[in-house]
Design goal:
The complex is a heterodimer of chains A (about 110) and B (about 120). Chain A is mainly beta and about 110 residues long. Chain A is built from no helices and nine strands. The chains are: A mainly beta (about 110), B mainly beta (about 120).
Chain lengths: ~110, ~120
């Protein structure tokens, strides 16, 4: 049973801001939301992680509302190199394994 | 930025042979993991390792598989009597702590092809 739900695919034009929303209705109190990016033939790359409210780093922002049942990954001014699969994961506190879903295949159009 | 490195990048092996996939985790990390991804499918957890022992393993990780940390820097996955269905990308990951607020960092994988 999938712990998170996200769109299968999205397209966007270069220079746009892209928002990918993820649903995690059954998130537990101690769980974190973690996002990874994966290019073909490469390993998943950690992007950002948060517990609630807003987190920002040099590549993305993560918005988590107060009820924590969803989150939105925001990629500012995307470029062709942002074409990849993006995974939203509900990381169980104390449970070391990560459970990946099918992710969102983001395609950036010139 | 420190990285997880994996060797070889591509391994081709005859069915029934044994393979060893190698990983060098990030140097100050204490928790180590193996995942696999069959072509076109999800990334699947295989095993986690801490303090020189397996802390969790999935149903995939049966007696055919074993892991070892032979020295202070390497972490290996051994697959005995390989089968065609073992063909996949195998990813090693490490983290500083085995809890959800410390992200796992992945290597770029070994592509295992069983003939």
């Amino acid at each position: 049973l999938a712990k998170t739900t996200q769109p299968i695919s999205m397209d966007s034009y270069e220079g746009q801001e892209v928002n990918i929303t993820c649903s995690h209705n059954n998130i537990a109190t101690n769980d974190y939301i973690t996002w990874y990016q994966q290019f073909p033939s490469q390993g998943p790359r950690f992007i950002i992680q948060g517990y609630k409210t807003k987190v920002t780093n040099e590549v993305a922002s993560l918005f988590i509302p107060a009820d924590r049942k969803s989150s939105t990954l925001s990629l500012p001014r995307v470029s062709l190199s942002d074409t990849a699969v993006y995974y939203c994961l509900d990381a169980d506190f104390g449970n070391e394994k990560l459970t990946f879903g099918t992710g969102t295949r983001l395609t950036i159009i010139p | 930025e420190p990285e997880v490195t994996q060797t070889p990048s591509h391994q081709v092996t005859q069915m029934g042979q044994e393979v060893i996939l190698r990983c060098v985790p990030i140097s100050n990390h204490l928790y180590f993991y193996w995942y696999r991804q069959i072509l076109g499918q999800k990334v699947e957890f295989l095993v986690s390792f801490y303090n020189n022992e397996i802390s969790e393993k999935s149903e995939i990780f049966d007696d055919q598989f074993s892991v070892e940390r032979p020295d202070g820097s390497n972490f290996t996955l051994k697959i005995r009597s390989t089968k065609l269905e073992d063909s996949a990308m195998y990813f090693c990951a490490s983290s500083s702590q085995g809890v959800s607020d410390q992200p796992q960092h992945f290597g770029d994988g070994t592509r295992l092809s069983i003939l």
